[in-house]
Design brief:
By secondary structure, the chain is mostly helical. The protein contains seven helices and no strands. It starts with a helix and ends with a helix.
């Protein structure tokens, strides 16, 4: 079963259970997926669905930070609950050590291709390769920090 099908099934189950908070969050996810499908005229695969979930979680985290600063804990709690629902659709994340190991391996492969050591100027090339291999398995902020560290050494 694809991730999109799983989300649709979860929406039906939330409707049956009359779980309005969960239902609302799942509908937001499906709406974002449908919008992407219509805009780009594609059928989303699991990787694209994970990217949408990541994007929605990042938006919610930014909102939680803003609401907490404004002392609106009611809204921050609502956004936090949505994050918990969305995180259920993410694959198992890699630890910081696993990300660093993967990034070092990719930098080594790139150094072989280039015929020289990869440096800070090669960050774009490394990020492209890392995104392709680690898409959905780790947060991009964590990946970016690991790439910077690997290229600095």
């Amino acid at each position: 079963m694809s991730l999109k099908d799983q989300v649709t099934e979860d929406m039906k189950n939330a409707m049956r259970a009359k779980d309005s908070e969960r239902l609302g969050t799942i509908r937001l996810l499906l709406a974002a997926a449908k919008q992407k499908e219509v805009d780009e005229r594609v059928v989303l695969d699991d990787v694209a669905m994970v990217a949408i979930v990541d994007k929605l979680i990042k938006q919610r985290k930014d909102s939680v930070a803003a609401f907490t600063l404004a002392n609106r804990m009611d809204l921050a709690d609502k956004e936090s609950a949505e994050i918990k629902v969305l995180e259920a659709y993410l694959p198992q994340r890699l630890s910081a050590e696993e990300v660093a190991t993967e990034v070092k391996a990719i930098v080594a492969e790139l150094a072989v291709e280039l015929g020289r050591n990869a440096g800070p100027g090669d960050m774009g090339k490394v990020m492209g390769a890392v995104k392709a291999r680690l898409a959905g398995k780790a947060e991009m902020g964590q990946i970016s920090a690991a790439v910077k560290a690997a290229l600095a050494s």
